[in-house]
Structure formats: structure tokens, C-alpha cells
Amino acid sequence: MKAIFITLLLALSLPLGLVAADEAHAASSVEGKLHGVAEQLHADLAHAGESIHEEEDKLTMITEKFGVSLPTLIAQMVNFVLVAFVLYKFAVKPIAATLDERQQKIADGLQYAEEMKTQLAEAERERAEKVKQAAIDAQAILTEAREQSKEMIESKTQEAAAQAEAMIRKASEATELERQKMLSDVRQEVARLVVATSSKVLSRDLSDARSKLSPIPQPKNWLMLAKPHF
């Protein structure tokens, strides 16, 4: 039993040993790469240090050439800050305020122009609608006036025709009355003339008869002769 357990332990430890050997190999490889990278980084840092040292030397040469020192640089910085503060306080700030004010005025003007443009468009639209409505109302009034005038013309025409017909009827009646009156007058005149003529004839005949002593004729027959024939 102990031998079997030892055998199994050895069998299991062999793959673990192989895996551990592989990991050790990989670790050694990674370590070598890290070592190379460290060397390269060290070389780069040394090169950068040399470059910085060269730049410092150049800056030192420039400062020595133009006579720039640390107190002078600090004094110039203080002067620059003071001048910048004065300029900001008495020049930049008022100018910025003026620019802001003008910008606000321009924005207000643009907004007012937009509002006026909108109101103008609205007024134009209302004017067009009113003109259209006025045209419709005018057309309706014109149509109504035409219908009323047509009805009035027809009414006046009918009234005039009725009046003309009445006048013609009255004229006809007056003409008929006048004709009847004239006929009556003519009849009366003819009767009067017949009577007068007959009287004359009778007077003459009577005179002749008296002279001849002949009988007197009956008055009835004489009146029949004196009646007019129409």
C-alpha cells in the first residue's frame, strides 16, 4: 500500500515538475527581456540627462550673453504682473465691458429686428386675409345689388306695363266714349237737320197743298220719314 501511494505520488509529481520547469524557463526568458528593457531605459535616461545638461549649458550661455540674472528675472516678472494688472484694471476690463455692452445691444437689436420681422409677416398675413375677405364681401354685395336691381327692373317693367295697359284701356274707353258722344251728336245733328229739312219741305208742301186744296197728310207718316237711318 505504501509502495502504491509512493508510485502515485511520483506519477503526479512528474507532470507538476514538467510544468514547473516550463514556468521557470518562461520566467527566466521574461527576466532576460526585462533586463534588456532596463538596460535600454538606463541608456535612454543617461542620454536624456546628457541632453538636459547640454540644454542647461546653452541656457546658461544665453543668460550670460544677455546679462539675465535671477533677481533681474524676478523684478521683470513683478513688473510684468503689475503692468498686466494695471492694463486689466484700467484698459482691458472697461474695453471688455464696452464690448459686452455693444454685443448686448447688437443682440437686442437683432432680436428686435427678428420680432419686427415676425410682426411684419403677421401683419402682412392679416392684411392679405382682410383683402381677400373684403373682395369676397364686395363680390357678395355686388351680386346682391345685381339681383336687387334685376328684381327692381322686372318690378318696374311690370308696373310700367300695367300702367301702360291701364292708360291704353283708359284711352280706349275715352275714345269709345268720345266716339259714342260724337255719334250721338252726329245723330242729333242729322235728326235736327232732317227735322228742319222736313219742316221746310212740309211747310212748302202744305203751302202748295193749301193752294191746291188737297187733304192734309197724317203726322205719323211724316214723323217716320223724319227718323234718321244709321
UniProtKB/TrEMBL annotation:
This is ATP synthase subunit b. It is found in: Cell membrane; Endomembrane system. Keywords: ATP synthesis, Cell membrane, CF(0), Coiled coil, Hydrogen ion transport, Ion transport, Membrane, Signal, Transmembrane, Transmembrane helix, Transport. It is a single-pass membrane protein. Belongs to the ATPase B chain family. NCBIfam families: ATP_synt_b (TIGR01144). Residues 1-20 form the signal peptide. Component of the F(0) channel, it forms part of the peripheral stalk, linking F(1) to F(0). The b'-subunit is a diverged and duplicated form of b found in plants and photosynthetic bacteria. The chain crosses the membrane at residues 73-92. F-type ATPases have 2 components, F(1) - the catalytic core - and F(0) - the membrane proton channel. F(1) has five subunits: alpha(3), beta(3), gamma(1), delta(1), epsilon(1). F(0) has four main subunits: a(1), b(2) and c(10-14). The alpha and beta chains form an alternating ring which encloses part of the gamma chain. F(1) is attached to F(0) by a central stalk formed by the gamma and epsilon chains, while a peripheral stalk is formed by the delta and b chains. F-type ATPases have 2 components, F(1) - the catalytic core - and F(0) - the membrane proton channel. F(1) has five subunits: alpha(3), beta(3), gamma(1), delta(1), epsilon(1). F(0) has three main subunits: a(1), b(2) and c(10-14). The alpha and beta chains form an alternating ring which encloses part of the gamma chain. F(1) is attached to F(0) by a central stalk formed by the gamma and epsilon chains, while a peripheral stalk is formed by the delta and b chains. InterPro entries: ATP_synth_b/b'su_bac/chlpt, ATP_synth_F0_bsu_bac, ATP_synthase_B_chain. HAMAP family: ATP_synth_b_bprime (MF_01398). Residues 106-148 form a coiled coil.
